[in-house]
Amino acid sequence: MPLSYDKPLTMKKEIVMESIRNFTDPSVIKEELVKLYPPKVAKKRGKAIVVNDPEEIPQVQANVRTVPGIISQRGCSYAGCKGVVLGPTRDIVNITHGPIGCSFYSWLTRRNQTRPESPEHENYMPYCFSTDMQEDHVVFGGEKKLKQAIQEAYDLFHPKAIAIFSTCPVGLIGDDVHAVAREMREKLGDCNVFGFSCEGYRGVSQSAGHHIANNGVFKHMVGRDDTVKDGKYKLNLLGEYNIGGDAFEIERLLDKCGITLVASFSGNSTVGAIENSHMADLNVIMCHRSINYMGDMMETKFGIPWMKVNFVGAESSAKSLRKIAEYFEDDELKARVEEVIAGEMPQVNAVIEEIRPRTEGKTAMLFVGGSRAHHYQDLFTELGMTTLAAGYEFAHRDDYEGRHVLPTIKIDADNKNIEELKVERDPEKYTERKSEAEIEAMKANGLEMNGYEGMMKQMEKKTFVVDDISHYESEKLIEHFKPDIFCAGIKEKYVVQKMGVPLKQLHSYDYGGPYTGFIGAVNFYRDIDRMVNNPVWKKIKAPWQTAPADGELEAEYVSQ
Amino acid sequence: MLLRHTKKEVKEREGLTINPAKTCQPIGAMYAALGVHGCLPHSHGSQGCCAYHRSTLTRHYKEPVMSATSSFTEGASVFGGQANLLQAITTIFSVYDPDIIAVHSTCLSETIGDDLQQITKKALDDGRIPEDKRVIYASTPSFVGSHITGYANMVTGIAEQFAKPDGEKLDQVNIVAGWMEPSDMREIKRLSKELGARIVLFPDTSDVLDAPQTGRHEFYPKGGATVPALESTGRSRCSIALGCISAEPAAIALEKKCKVPFRTEDMPIGLSATDRFIMSLSKAAGVEVPDEITAERGRLVDVMTDMEQYFYGKKVALFGDPDQLIPLTEFLLDLNMKPVHIVSGTPGARFEKRMKEILKDAPYTNFKNGLTADMFLLHQWIKNEPVDLLIGNTYGKYIARDEDIPFVRFGFPILDRIGHSYFPNVGYTGALRLVEKILGVFLDRQDRDAPEEKFELVM
Fold first, then answer.
1. Domain spanning A77-220: which superfamily?
2. Mean local confidence (pLDDT), A318-328
3. Is A204 in Cβ contact with B73 (below 8 Å)?
4. Are residue B318 and residue B448 in the same domain, yes or no?
5. Phi and psi at residue B228, to the nearest 5°
6. Would you call B280 helix, strand, or coil by DSSP?
7. How many domains, chain B?
8. Would residue B165 count as lying in a domain?
9. Same-domain pairing of B321 and B284
């Protein structure tokens, strides 16, 4: 069942796109975006700003270092590793090895929700653990302090796993966190201790940290527990971090369809589930950027194919469920999925019919993440809104242009030190789920196995794609296009709102959500309707600032 | 339970900090630099630091927080960050056009030994700094002290690098603001005006981090201490430092460089500390205290006398930053309450000594500061000796909910409420606000828990 409100959408949207096409020559706007930069910087930024053509996708510069001094949205490797990938697993004690700040800033700030099985089950997510490195540790080394911290954490909590995260000074002073981890793992016996060299200076953004996290989770967790779980259709959900309860909604849908979720990487997850994840028969990937490495590595070692899904947007959610059913090639499952979709869509349609007359024809810009700027365009499409410009904060070219460009991506000095694990087929644990021929047949049938087409293919001609957008560039884009809504993160939130444009946070969801699945789509429709139609935006000027300046003040009482 | 793994039994810890009552130096430096007009803070380190600090300050203020970064990569970490900072200075002046760049270091640049003084001098020699522009700096290693230390270091940098000693003495008093909110700074200025005292307040984040919605983003909002005002601090009659940890070092620097004598007062939070501030300022500026301020004080004391029954003997646990905890503890004692547990992650003998003075008649108090003086320990203390009230930043809400304790948000950061940037905690008015908040949570609790027959209309 498609979205019911379809035809008028296309008409209005066409009008908007027509007006964009007739707008100022995009190359003129592009020039404006880099005008104030010193010449070398302008040249470099120019390669990251492209005008899209979905038929002939242009190359976009991505995953290169930010020019010092540019106000960027980006964070660091530690944030990508500890904050994004490892943070949402509730029963690991995550110890940050370094001065206090890094652990403090990543303490509960990402809104990863989790639901322990019972009040007695472990949940360390509300806690912040740090070695609180001091000057003498920087001078004389911090390994002793780190061992002490691990021992104290073990004595206090007896966790199943302790992970160590290196911050900038750790790499420089030469603390070997991996050796410490090995030593403590042996000493403690029943606690899996492992380290991540995710110093903030590694790579050029959070992205390096994702990769480092993937490697560590793969090496130290995946494949440790061969228990066979019940379930006919078993999959892992990769790259879903349960912000605002997104994973809960996906879990609800999978459950309704009778699909067994073995592990999620890593929203609402546990150590045990991840250790058992190689027993699933399919990996579905939400956030391609942060977790695609895991999909590839698990396929090579254990024989689990992966496919890209998107549970952001009602139609995308339906499509993703259908893709999963296709993969399992089971009529019962296909029928069940159709039933579930048919059961969910009426409430979605009821809301979209109410809301769309108020959102249709409006415009959006999305500059966020490594997948969200793509996924959320589906929701805006459902609202009848047009995405004028979009870009990622820390993505690579494949997220923009599609995975077919992977062989052509050059590895530069900043990325060459991020370890590429050499993965081989596990002689005992590898099981072929689908033969190569079966995968090829699926691809031929339109099922995008082990692939991702990227964001630009979906975007209209002449829209803007900007990687690692700077404050200055976003300000200029807003001035030019005056979008009805801008999507980014907390650092941009109030800057853009001060310009009179509502900003929707797509990292924290402005403390709302979930936005996945059918319930999430409805939540998003309502939130966007509220934001783009809020009367407060018309109240910015005081009445005396907008009143016509004719006549003199009526100061009669003065003379009386 | 949210903090289900926190058990009553306290074990000595040396290696592990759990739920810290502090964060790192650079965020304090960034906050301080925002209190200078036309200034862009710059974080000399990897870009994650800058992103984290901007995010935390933004969540606390719900306002734009602009700052740039040297965006270190592995190369810069090995070969030194000079090239990054030089390029950053050029880029910033051409794109963002600030009057001043205030550079602070990070644990990364400190570990590799970058010398900010030398690099900024090189930038000047290379002609990267336009003639009427300035680059100032402060060394703020994250592995020393806390965010409060970083604030103090940047404020000291501001004082040292702007103040000019030469020229005639001016009939004005410097007030060095310890780490307080823009609302507090606004209130200090109002009280000074009411007193008739001519002051230079720095840093001053009012009209920066509480900017109005105008439909235009002002990259450099109208507030902040101006360069001429900062230059003139070297010729002021004297300085009053509000806070022995976060403000005094800047006053000492001014004395050393420009021979401006100073006096340190506790931050004027609560009755007694505000009394001392008013007396000190009236003396320093040579002005009488006007009746209006006496009346303001009287209104506060009136509420304290009228509602005293609700405060008496109530046990309080608090955590936060030194210059706020010192006068707050004193105020709780003035209200006849019992501050039984206090922690602060900020180290320092000076802080300990001042707390001991304040707590001399409260031998029952558990107080710890510095390493492992964290919220995990505070929570354990609370489990051993329960309290009637918890005061601290937003992270306290996890303890408050688990232990079902009335909770007043106070300090940094407050991520889940507004108000702190608009309504002051300092001065008599600020104290009245605190009293109202504390009383509010007590009486709400009584209303919630009272059996129907004991439910009161008048309280």
1. Nitrogenase molybdenum iron protein domain (3.40.50.1980)
2. 98
3. yes
4. yes
5. -60, -40
6. helix
7. 3
8. no
9. no
At B319, list the tokens: 């955590």
Nearest partner of B234 among B178, B283, B169, judged by Cα: B169
Residues B120 and B228 in one domain: no
Determine the residue of chain B that is closest to A113 in CA distance: B2
Percent of chain A with pLDDT over 70: 94
A76 is catalytic: yes
Q: Which residue has the tokens 């530690």?
A: A78
Residues 6+ apart with CB under 8 A from B139: B104, B105, B110, B116, B153
Cα distance between the two ends of chain B? 33
Q: Which of A190, A210, A311, A208 is nearest to A265 (CA)?
A: A210
Active-site residue, from A74, A110, A224, A471: A110
Q: Which domain holds residue B244?
A: 170-211+219-294
8 A C-beta contact, residue A29 and residue A473: no
What would the two tokens of residue A41 be? 């910087």
N residues, chain A: 560
CATH code of the domain covering residue B340? 3.40.50.1980
Instruction: Show the DSSP H helices in A403-486 as ranges.
Output: 436-444, 471-481
pTM, entire model: 0.97
CA distances from B98 to B91, B129, B449 (A): 11, 11, 55
Q: Could you tell me where the beta strands, DSSP code E, fall in B178-289?
A: 199-202, 236-242, 262-265
Query: What is the ipTM metric for this complex?
Result: 0.98
**Mean pLDDT within A161-177:** 97
**Could you give the CA distance from residue B310 to residue B337 in angstroms, rounded to a whole number?**
9
CATH class, A1-70+347-402+452-560 region? alpha beta
Looking at the domain assignment, is residue B260 inside a domain? yes
* Residue B245 sits in the same domain as residue B319: no
Between chains, do B73 and A171 touch, taking CB under 8 Å as contact?
no
Distance CA A207, CA B372 (A): 32
Q: Does A111 participate in catalysis according to the annotation?
A: no
